[in-house]
Every structure is written in C-alpha cells, then in structure tokens.
Amino acid sequence: MARRPHRWAAVAAVTTLALAAAACGRSAPSTGGGGGGSSAGNVSPTKGLVTTSPAGTKPVSSVVWAVYRDVNSLDPIYAFDYPENTAVSLMCESLLRQAPDGSLQPGLATLANPNPKTFVFTIKPGAKFWDGHPVTPADVVYGLKRGMDTKLGGFYGQVFTRVSSITATGSDQVTIKLKQPDYWLEGELASIPGVVIEKSVVQQQGKNYGTPSGKIMCTGAYELKSFAPGAGVVATANPDYWQGSTKALVQQITLKGVPDTSTLTSGLLTGGIQGNYAVGIATLDQLEKSTNIKVYQGPGWLTDAFIVSSLKGALGDVRVRRALSMALDRQGIIDSVYRGAALMPRWLSNPGTFGYGKSVFDAAYAKAPVMTQNIAAAKKLVQQAGATGKTITIGTSSQLSDIAAVTGAYQAAAQAIGLNVKLKSVSAQNFVNFFIEPKARVGVDGFLTVNYGDYADPAAMLSTLVLPEGSQNYDQFHDPAIIAAMEQARSTADPDKRAALVAKAEQLTAQQLPWIPNVQPTSVLAISKKLTGATVSFAYMFAPWANSLGGTG
Amino acid sequence: MLVASLLIASFVIFAAVYLAPGNPIAALSGGRSLPPSSIAVLEHRYHLDQPFLAQYWYWLSDALHGNLGLSITLRENVSTLIAQRVWTTAGLVLYASLLICVIGIGLGLLSGLRPGRLDTSTLVVTAVSAAIPAFVAAIVLILVFAVQLGWFPALGNGTSLVDNIRHLTLPAVALAISSLAIVARVTRASVREEGEREHVQTAVSRGIPGRQLIQRHILRNAAIPITTVTGITIASLIAVAAVVETAFSLNGLGAYLVQAAESKDLAVVQGISLVLVTAFVVVNVVVDVLYAALDPRVTLGGNR
Q1: What would the pLDDT profile of A381-395 be if each residue is shown by its tens digit?
Q2: How many Å lie between the alpha carbon of B217 and the closest alpha carbon of chain A?
C-alpha cells in the first residue's frame, strides 16, 4: 500500500519574505481563515472543514496552478508524489472514483462483488478516451497488468499482492479473481493504480509513454495539450467528454512547478498563480489576509508522525513511547509549522480518512482521548520505566525546516521528562535514506514523516506499519491483536463492520504507539477569489479535482 | 583549450555528483520502497549498477557522439531539455549584462568625470548595492514592484517577446544590481586615476578641448580595467543566474541545474555544466579579444 515520507520542498528565504511583507509580527494563527475555518485543536475535528468549494459558474480562459516542483511523468505507474498525482488526477480517471468526502463511487466502471474473491467491473456505456475510442475491457486489463509488472519499475506493484487473475469476461466486463478476499483493493482501484489508459497508445509510445516527448491517452474532462519540463503541463478542456453532464469551464490549466515558497506566495498574491494545494505552508497567514486569495481547509488524509524505527533502545518500552507522546507540545507544532492548518490527533490516522462506515468511525473517534500535553504524568511514566537519563537518537535534517521544527519539539519534550536526545542530522537529499536504507537507520531510534495512504481509509496507511510485511514496519513491530483486527478488516465486506475492526486497530495502535502521531494536517487549498469549484479535500490527489472549476459570480 | 577545459570539468563534475549524497532511484521513487526487482530493472537501465569509471565512460562515449544521455527523472533526452531552457538563461544574462554595461559604466563615467554631489551619491548608493546578494534583491524587488505596486509580474517567463522582456526585467535587475555597482565603482576609480596622470595634466595645460581629452587620453587608458571587471562579472552572472531563476520561477538552465543536482540526475547535471563552462570560456575569450582591440601592445597568442 501507499507510503510517502515527505515533500522535499526546500523552504528557503520564506522567513525573510514573511518578515518583510507582514508589517506586523506573527500573530496567533487565525482560526476562522477562509471558508474552512478549522480551529486548531478543534474538539470535533472535521467540523468546519469543507470537502469542495462551490461549483464555478462562468467560463475562464486560462488558469495557472502551482505544484511544489516540476511534474516528472504523466505515466500513472510512476505517479507517486504531489506533482505527478495532481497532474494525473486532473486528466485521467480510475475504474472507481473517490468522491471529495472520501467515499467510493463508480468511476469509469461500476463494481459488483458476486463473491468475496471476485470483483466484476462493468465499464459504463459511452466511456471513451480523448481520441474518441471507447474504453474496452482490453484497455482495463492491460493497464492493471502494466501496474503489476515489476519489470517496468512501477510504484504500485504491492497493491496487487492478493490478485490471482485479471481477465476480460465480456464486451464491457473485467473480472479480478483474488487469492484471498481483499476489500482494500477497491480503494486502490479508486486511486492512481486504477487509472485507465488506452492500450494501443501505450504500445505505440512504448518507453515514451508519459514522458515530455511522448503522449498519453486518458478519459478525463481535461486533455493533455503539452508537457514541457520547466514550462509545465498544459491541459485543455476536452470538448467531447463522455460524461455529458460535466463540461469543463476552464479552457486551459497549466500546472507549473514552483519550488520556492516565497515565489509561490508572491505569485498567488499577484495573480501570476491562481491556485495551489499547500502543505504546511509558512506563509498561510499572508494568503489568508490577501484580498485576491481565498483559503479553504478540507479533510486531509495526511498524518505528521514520529516513526519509532528501533524498538531496541529506550523507545522499546511502551511506557517511554507514551511518555514522549504525552510530553510533546502538539499545539506548538500546529501553530508554528502548520500555521493552524492541522488538528490535534486522537489516533494515528487523520479523521479525514473516514471514507466509509463514517458513523462507526466517528463514534469510536469521539470516545478516544485527545493527545494533549501532560508533562507531570509523562515524567512519572519515564521514572516507572526506569528510563530517566537514557538517550534517544532522532534522525533529522536541519535543511528541512518543518522536520527540524518538529525535531525541536521532540527535543524539548524528551528533555522535560528526563530523557536525553542526540540528533543524527543529514542533508535534505539524504533524509530519504532513513526510509529506504537500513544502514541509515542504524543507531537511530526514530525519525519524522508526513505520510498518507492512497485512499480514504485509516487502514491504507496503518497497514504499512503494523502488518509484518508492511513497507514501513521498520523494526518488526508485532502486536497480534492489531494484526488480527487488520487482517480481518481486509476480508470484511460490510463497511460498518470493517470500520469497527479498523477503529479497534487504531485504538490499539494509539496505545502501543509504533508511531507517535504529531498532528493531523488538513488539506489546504489556496485559490484566486475569481475561481471556485476545486476539490478541497485530499481526494484531489487521486480523483479529478477541476471538473467543477470555473469563474465566480 | 576549450576541449581540455570541458574534459576536465566533465570528469570533476561527474565525480562530484557521483560522490555526493543521495540516490537517483530514491529520488525517482520519492523514497517509496520499491520491490527489489524494480530497483534492479531501473539500475540496469541507467547503468547505475556499473562501477564509477564505467559509468563515466558510458557518458563520455555517448557525449562524443553528440548524445548527452537521458534524464533519469524525466526519461527524456538531455539535449532536448537543455534546448528548451537555454534561451531563458541566455536572455536573462544578456539583459543583465546590458544593464551592467549601460548603467554601470555610464554611472561610473559620469561620477568619475564630474566630481560633486552626483559623484558622492553614486558612491554611497553603489557601496550599498554592491553588498546586496541576488537572492535578497530578488525578494525585495518582488515585494515592491510585483506585490505592492504590481508593475511587473512576480514569476514566470511570459508568452510573447514584449511579455518576455517584461517578465525578465525584475530578474535581470536582481541579477545585475551588485555587479552593476562594482563596475560603476571600478569605472569611476580608473577614470579618476587616468584623469590625474601626467600626460592628461599636460594635455589640459596645452589646452586640448575637453571632449578630445576624455576620449583619447582618459577613456582609452581606463578601458582596460573596465573591460576586465565587466568581463569577469558577466561571466559570474552565468553562475548566479541559478539563484535568480529559482526566485522568479524562471524556466532556465541554472534553476534546472540545482534541481537536477538535488535529484542526482547525473546526465542533466553534466549536460548543463558543459554548456555553462563553454559559455564561461567564450566570455573570457571575448574579453581577451577586446584587450587586443583596445591596447595595441597586447597581441593575441603572442609572447608578451
């Protein structure tokens, strides 16, 4: 399943701009900012968040949308990070679709589930590619098998581990047979791994598919006009979109890589950039105050967390992990790193991920305690564990300002409860090695991440760290009760029952703390006041987000 | 000379990027853990499983055949990628050079020849602006002229020629400002120095008219140090352009070089470096040729 460490955007020179621009000092983070207006530490966490902005009504000729760096590829099997996902989800469609509220809906196909080990997808009548060719079962089968093919070096091979066969079983039907029931696959097929591309075009393009000089063929309401690195990805409205009820109002959208936060901010303020999905943006206050920009906050699928990568040191004792969690100044992180655009956690997963079984999840979540700071109790726990004076080593990078800031919060927390902290600081480029190089983790007790799954389900991320084969289970964390709940959830068809099992796993995880949740970032959309209609929630990463985009008024 | 510089530079840069921290496959996958078979496929595709010298040899033999290789992150020919961006950087550096030559030298001449209030204020202003690094200039210029006044766009390249010039104005000023100040100061100093020389004083006492005096006796002699400093600063602009391009989100070579180095995209780093080294050498050659034109005592290629 999905895992991503962090957005590697270098936040340079931001402070200078912020200092110079804001003629006032940093005030407390605004709680009613934009349409979202989620107050930090809000008790009912998703209250006040919006999943989408009101649909646009007027035609617009051209929009420049910023992503944090240039798009590298438009091939869905290589789409793994914010820029690629934003580009692919703008133009391409999956078999199923994640609605902005995270619920699963039919996409290019409808799903039937005759028995737990069989998924039957029926392609919707009229579904066609930009070139007018109808979507056929052969296209679907080819695309999915391409995603499974490890020889291509694609990023989603692990998604299909329970699949035994994918075959065309009718003129509009594709059947997936499973070795074991897998209700997590539905979510993946409503995400990037389920994107449908045209077989003949992929074959004709070969290695060039999705590169700047190659072309792509998808089905969405926007089609690719050009892809030039540096200049950006240009998409234009598809006049013959197969779902006639949706008509793209924006003639042209340019996705442009803008790595520098101060450049992004001035671009938004001056109208050079009309929209951006921002994560932990240091200039959020400036944007919220601007008369040209509206800032929305929506449910996020993201978790900012401390990964306990070694259970051999002081953090091997669950009491020490709990103490460290209790001592952490989460409100400080929300204020300084996220400028208010994050929530206090109760579980490891963001409540924005409750895409199904909502009432079950909400009830269980409401009962869970908010992870507030309590230094006195934390100190006691450390003493009970006999860990006072022990040292923990945190892997960090002083060049990644967000990571460095949260590391600082952990240093303060550990020192306040009688632990010593050693930092192993690496360059920004090498920070990724903590995730992929066992050697880099030697002697490190933990490091920080901003992580998310591919679809709205707490299990999407949780499975990567609590299951024995999970790609982010770094030190064989093994809790039989959690594993049992997760495995059972994966095979449970009924959404409410599945939600209850995942909720149980989350509750246990919040006690065992294989990872310590720091805060739950919301999804932040900064958009020109002349525009509206973009998805606000984190679903923009996985499903068309600009189909309702248009002018205001 | 050029060939030797390029060869040495290419080896040193290749080695430096090779030794630098990071892993191109990790940059490619965004740190997502890939199945070992996928990693093997990708490493083989880009010769990453070969020893250092073999990798360099692959690159060099391709480069000698005019093939600069394939970008790992974009899966695209490096020469295509460079061609798309070279005009932005060239335009930016030319624009900035023009500002330096016209305003820098102009200001220096004026204040050198006319002592007084203008001279004093030029001295103060250039002393301050010589100390402004390009990235600070970029931030202030964006803040004042793009965000507050809205006269110029804050970022991007523009679509037509006029639009391009409008988009490049702030970046060119940011790039030129400190060099411009230095050139102005050097120009002023050398004009002053020449003005106080004996032969000029003699010319003055002989009643040679001012214009002829300035052209023949002062400027001709002051031209050599001015050319040297202008040449060096213009060559240095090629390197500083990276900072300005990043700040203004311009689609240029410098910004791309930084980006490629961060993701360890070796072929791209190599390709751009070679273009920049070539440009640097060419600028220096032009300056040498100018020397010869300005000063008959200097002969090209001869033993001095």
Answers
A1: 999 999 999 999 999
A2: 48
